[in-house]
Amino acid sequence: MAAAKRSLDGAEVKSSKKAKISHENHQKTKDASRPTAQKSERKAETFAGGTGQSSREAHAKQKTLTRERKAARPNYDAIARSMKIWERIRRKSHVPKEERTALVHELFEIITGRVKEFVFKHDCTRVVQCALKYATPEQRKQITAELKGSYRELAESKYAKFLIAKMVVGDNESRDAVINEFYGHAKRLIRHPEASWLVDDLYRTIATPQQKAILLREWYGPEFVVFRNTTSPTDDPVTADLSEILAKHPEKRGPVMNHLHEMTNGLVQKKATAFTILHDALLQYFLNCKGSETTDFLAMVQDDEEGDLAKNLAFTNSGSHLLALCLAHGSAKDRRAFLKPLKTHIKLLASDQYGHRVLLTAYDVIDDTVQVSKSVFSELLSKDADAEAREQELLAQVEHLTARIPLLYLLSPDAPKWLILDDTAAIIQEVRTIRKETSKKDPEKRRLELLGHVSQPLLDLITNHAQYLAQSTFGCQFITETIFGCGSNGDVNNALAAIANLVTEMPEDDEKRQEVEKIIASPAVGRMLKALVQGGRFEKATKSINLVDPPLKFDELLYSRLMAKGGDAEVIEWANGPNSWVIVAMLESEHFEAKDELANLLRKNSERLNKDNKGAAIVLQTIGSQPSTGVEKTSKKRQAGEDEDASSRKQKDKPTQKKRKA
């Protein structure tokens, strides 16, 4: 028992020692996790640099030292005051006009004579930019004159380059002064990380053709830098057309081509492929390539694994031209490589004023129409989307001035003049000349195969959205061209029935009925109905109708609907209404089976026809109720009127096209 007791007592002692040690360790941990006031004070002293100051006092002292250091710099008072003025006037909506005028005047008093000292400071350059924004023309010229001789240095500055961008806007004198200082340094500036984008923006947007030519010629070699032409009126116009230069000096071809290749290839290897001036240089180089140079160039474009070069080329004027030529000259393998990086940008290309040229070229030169369908049409027609979303996308494209071109281009062997611009037509003609040597498939066979992939979605769009499309001129043109173009590749009967239903079946609701009547009375719908009744496109050269095969027979469909709706009264109403030319087209049609029946109906009701309506007057002459001697004369007048309408429509479209070019 005694031994057991001693053992128990020993265990208790050990247990108590362990408990004591555990308690002490816990206390140490607790003390370490919760610093005492003394520790906090020591930490604050350490942060304050061991001076015994608090952190607040240390920060205040640091600010004071910073202020004193800045005050020791030149023009500190002027800079400080200008910054305060800038802080005030930059908030446009919070400053009255009179106060801003006074502050701008004070700001110019401060910076005059010191502009160079301000613009190279990252914070002060904003002050000069703000002053330039609200300056008068005289004050702007004052800043321009003071910075003369420093424009290249400003362009290379990380912050001052923005001042150059604002300085040249709307001021031709400033533009000329700035660009003149870039002469001789174009190659160096385009490689500079800060100046490159500024120089290219000036080249692309505001530089004159002469200025562009001088800058681009510097890429041809040192000789064109040293002996560059000036822009004085006494000099011959400067040209950057390399073909013209080499025609005058054929001995320079080797050095010029080598220098141009070295310059362009260097930028391509550095992935600096978005510059417009680079695209112009690449186009000039490719247009003058011979033999193996062409093959090497095509390989260079394909070697860009990420496809950035092709993507950037497609969206500029020279770049899209160059990419079209690459597609035309390339082999089947080359063409697949060129299209591959563009697959995810098809809709952007279609709606771009330059990018759509690449798609049109692909239609014209790629023999593998299945590949074009997968690469282009699957994205262009939104085939992966549901039916409603797909049709909404197509409606948006149909009403877009440029996006509709890739949809309508395949509907006829030669695109109508109102669809594409002259520049695009020239590129297409150039591509079609080249494809005679590089493509194997018959052009018409290729077109019809491609048309087979797009015809049904376009016809379904007309069937389901006839009223919406008929509301606009673009929509009516789309309906007419699609029905004419898809007649041999799809079933147009449903689309024609939808058009006939639109113009003959009126809604019961008064508001909706007025809306439909307004649509039917529009000139665009009248031209569309007349063209469909005629059954083909009017050929101006032969002054005849090129009938669609198989015949549409829309004249019979429309006439039967009119007779079913209101009989003789409905026909007479159309003959006296805004669509009287549709009735004239029926009477003049050679394939309208009910032509005699219609003529007898109109003769019987000739007294109800309104002679003041031009179309009704032609109807009277056609059915013989007026002397026949006037028929030929009136017919010529009518044709002249149609030509005048077409000319006026073309003139009406020109401002939009010019705006798109800009």
Automatic annotation (TrEMBL):
- Specify the domain of life of the species encoding this protein: Eukaryota
- CPL domain: which residues? 403-542
Q: Name one GO biological process term.
A: rRNA processing
Which keywords, in A-to-Z order, does the entry hold?
Answer: Repeat, Ribosome biogenesis, RNA-binding, rRNA processing
**SMART domains, sorted:** Pumilio
A Gene Ontology term for the protein's cellular component: nucleolus
InterPro entries this protein is in?
A: ARM-like, ARM-type_fold, CPL_dom, PUM3, Pumilio_RNA-bd_rpt
Any single GO molecular-function term of the entry would be:
mRNA binding
User: Where is composition skewed (Basic and acidic residues) in this entry?
Assistant: 1-45, 56-71, 646-656
Spans annotated as Disordered: 1-74, 620-662
Q: Does RNA-binding count among this protein's keywords?
A: yes
- Bias (Polar residues) occurs at 622-632
Its job: RNA-binding nucleolar protein required for pre-rRNA processing. Involved in production of 18S rRNA and assembly of small ribosomal subunit.
State the protein's name: Pumilio y domain member 6
Q: What organism is recorded for this protein?
A: Cladophialophora chaetospira
Provide the gene name from the record: puf6
